[in-house]
Amino acid sequence: MAGPDRSTRLAFFAAVLFGGANAIGVRETVLELPPLWSAALRFLSAGVILVAITVLTRRRFPRGRSLWGAMLYGSVGFAASFGPISTGLQHVPGGTGSVLIAVTPLLTFGLAIVQGQERFHLQGLVGALVALVGIGIVFAGQLGAAVPIGSLALVLLGAVAIAESAIILKAVPRSDPFSTNAVAMLTGGAILLAVSFLAGEPHPLPTRNETWLALGYLVVFGSVVLFALFVFTLQRWTASAVSYATLLFPFVGVTVATFVVGEPFSMSLVLGGAIALVGVYLGAFAARPHRTSATSAPECLPVDACADVPVVNTTREVRA
Length: 320
Description:
Layout: H1 6-20, H2 22-30, H3 35-56, H4 64-88, H5 94-101, H6 104-114, H7 122-144, H8 149-171, H9 177-198, H10 209-234, H11 239-242, H12 245-261, H13 267-285
Helix pairs in contact: 1-10, 1-12, 2-5, 2-10, 3-4, 3-9, 3-10, 4-8, 4-9, 5-12, 5-13, 6-8, 6-13, 7-13
């Protein structure tokens, strides 16, 4: 089989760059804005843009079970995930956050086994144990740097929610990926906004240029453009090949955190992160051509969620 053409390779590496820096963008926004409010702003804004794209390109919005599935996916994949992640990243460095979120494919595989979408494989258990060692090293290093363990746990909890959203998306009929994610992001954003009000958060607009820049980046490049790049790449390359972007995200995140944002460089983060990524590769990627990884959450990967669905003028629903 021929390899990807130049435009596909460029789209892939652009997706790696944008996706890898997302945790840094979230970290920068929550340094000024309340976490739930900042996440709500991000996904409501991105959802509105996706609705506009859906309408202008005459795509079909999900209906029936697909509609309810998109709303459930948004509730878990955006609200239940990025609420804890945004809250945790108030105290967790962005580079560390990108490493923790990168274990999502392995969490997805484990949840898929528990819920009957995948069969147990010894390789998955070995990968999980290796990744657990790496995460333990990362946790130990961050605790030594006075990062609250509760904040680290919140980021991991958010990764679990992203993983569960993959199970949800795999189990329901899907329509056009852009319209599905428009519904999902608006649903998740609305829930985050409601919880933000219930939690008594203030709702200011940013006053720092850095916050505006980070928020604009997350909305445009870290959500809408990132998702479009993955759809473009998946239509022209294999889902298994594109899925490796997940393993490259932390390298971008740690690099941006160190050289652009100025976060302290930690050998425990590099060592633990490398071990964790080896575990993710062993457990969720190596020799696993039929993984359950159908998530289109921006910080993870839309493998299988879009590759088999037409991206323009969808006229019928496709069952996962």
